[in-house]
Amino acid sequence: LMLFALLATPAWANGLDAFAFDQKPGAQLPLDAAFSDAAGRPVTFGSLAGKPLVLAFGYFHCPNLCGVVREDMFAALQRTGLQAGRDYQLAFVSIDPHETPKDAAAAQASDLARYPADPAGWHFLTGDAASIEAVEAAAGYRSRYDPALAQFLRPAGLIFATPAGVVSGYLLGVGYSPGDVQAGLARAASGGIRPKASPGLLLCFQFDPTTGRY
Question: From CA 36, how far away is CA 38, in angstroms rounded?
């Protein structure tokens, strides 16, 4: 089950703001943060510079929301007519430091089978906790592992960055339209910075019979 809450006031109820994007337009992504791609090759955000960037967070063994984000993201990108590698770079960063390039390779192969693209423009990245936290902090992404659920609690959305690795704007939630994705990439390509997006928060929830609460 999914709960979509459009939050109208800054004082968000029940501490949900702890899992929302802390939007940081104009922030610099850490260009030296070290990751590995699906082939095990070293990748930094500095090595992705030169093209506008679509940045998404999640993890490859996610049981629910991450798959929705990836499906919507790739479907929208495919319909923009833009080509990965030529017009933009894409980085999907695993927030689970225990995932490996083997996990990234399986996810990338599955996604490319459904959405054919130049794999040189798609980067499915894994890294250690320090690198993940550095990019999360710069992009304003918040996640926390819940041992009881054996899942990460996190928001859904995309981040656009300029060719220099500066946060250009956000697209929150899921259900991305090709026009919005194309506009985000065009703005990022020109170095434009968009003001904060409307505060939407998409969460997964389940009933806890021990507390009687969701």
Answer: 7
Query: Any idea what DSSP says for residue 29?
Result: P
| DSSP category for residue 161 | E
Strand partners, 88: 84
Q: What count of other Cβ atoms lies within 10 Å of the Cβ of residue 36?
A: 19
In the block, residue with structure tokens 């054996």: 150
End-to-end Cα distance, the chain: 11
Residue 102: name the closest of 34, 35, 39 by CA.
39
Give pLDDT, residue 206. Answer: 62
Q: Please, are residues 161 and 53 in contact by the beta-carbon 8 Å criterion?
A: yes
Q: Any idea which residue has 């250690």 for tokens? A: 128
User: Per-residue pLDDT tens for 48-77?
Assistant: 999 999 999 999 998 877 788 899 999 999
Token couple for 128:
């250690």
Stated pTM of the model: 0.85
Q: Which amino acid is at 170?
A: Y
Tell me if residue 86 falls in helix, strand or coil: coil
